[in-house]
Amino acid sequence: MEEKDGVIGALLDRRAAEEGLRRFGAEVDFRWETGSTNDDLKAAGKRRAFGHPVLLSVARQSAARGTRGRQWRRLGDALLFSLGLALPQFGHRAPGLISIAAGVAVVRVLRAAGFDAALKWPNDIWVSGGKAGGILSEIVRDAEGRGSVVVGVGLNVTLPADHAAVTTSGWRMSALAVGEKSPFENDPARRTAMLTDMAAAMLTAFRRAEDEGVETVLQDFPDADAFAGRSVFWQDAGSGMLAEGVDRGVDADGRLRVETEEGELLLGGGTSLVNAAGGWM
Questions:
Q1: What SUPFAM superfamilies does this protein map onto (predicted)?
Q2: pLDDT tens-digit profile of 230-239?
Q3: Quick check: 212 and 181 in contact, CB under 8 A?
Q4: Residue 250 and residue 146 share a domain
């Protein structure tokens, strides 16, 4: 990737990112393109567990993945990065909380920047009522058994005004700017600040969960939750039928607590909330 005065490809300023993440001792790596930032950092974590956080961001990915191996679809400009770090202790006990803690952190940064953002359990970034991105957390171990976690974030920055894209669960796709120019156009400083703020917020959330307990994640989730106190729908694993309940937050394992007529149920991370009116598949 071409670099001049620390600005890479007129997209990101590596030196500014390094300065913004200095307090975490983080390493910053920007590239034009790779297959998957998560796969790159997972390979590094398998060779040797991370001793310090590593932030990897690219302009393009040729093999991006979402939950359950689904291909991540990019329809316009996007912010793409992964964060690799030593597996936090709470991640050993409750790996499902990693994506939730990261998602809440990303939502807070977006809201502070003026975007109408929320988190749809367990790992979808919601902007203006649609899916604008997602978070993929993956745990790996090196030959000595030391754990690392890689947290990938893909966020749509722009989408065309006439797009008709929907997710496999029937939700419409969204972005920071739909039918408008990128908020980062010709502004690598702003793009870098957004990326750095997200990474810093994620690392801060992980530290807080370590120091103060996972209750911090449980307490922070409702404010970010896109469907807090509202009815949600999912496909029942047993019957295959559409089931309904009211979103009541998450438990200490990151499962969604839903209130139904039969009592409270806990939905695991393999469950997807579907848009009952949106042609989910």
A1: Class II aaRS and biotin synthetases
A2: 999 998 777 7
A3: no
A4: no
